[in-house]
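Please check this one:

***
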Amino acid sequence: MARTKKVYKRVLLKLSGEALAGERGYGLDVGVIQKTAQEIKEVTRLGTQLGVVVGGGNIFRGLAASARGMDRIQADYLGMLATLFNAVAIRETLLRVKVPAVVLSALPIPALAETYYPRTARREMDAGQVLLLAAGTGNPYFTTDTAAALRASELGADLILKATQVDGVYDDDPRLNPQARLYTEMDYDQYLQGRLEVMDATAISLARENNIPIVVFNGMIKGNLKKIVTGSTIGTIIRGTRS
């Protein structure tokens, strides 16, 4: 039987909080977290080093609260705390299935997580720990997508994976338009010029500056994460123009 060929050594995975809510649309779905932990376990068995930036939209969305009148800075900090909630839940589930994991937070909350420092994070990855990267960048006005691109740059990731609830990047919302076309490949500039909304422009620009490809894929389909890490073409890849 042929062995699985590992392509990517160090990967940064962005998980949305909404995905962790499951069909309820809010809070934490224990079943979804358990499935996520198993998907991560399959990837770590390959020897791939994995960092995971976790969103918090299943608990609190800072931008939405700001739109309803809350101070934007305070709302964003509450959103950061929501990501920490999710990261701790995933860590505990990973530890139960014998996957070493650590939560590193951009906000210092020592009772729940270690403080994020790039050098410490790289050491933890080299030691085989899955990094659960919480609290975004630690600054208001930045999304967790931007945090994912920033952490990928700091950690020297080979690839950013953006797990979504659709199959990749489309030219229109596939949930509203059944004729929407799926892109299998595009370059950073094409994405930015198209004003697409799967990831924010700051995240794409940062990935472009550091030449880190991004794969947008359906994180709800079992096995997709492992397939991408081992070189399968899944979803949409965003990268620089080939020479």
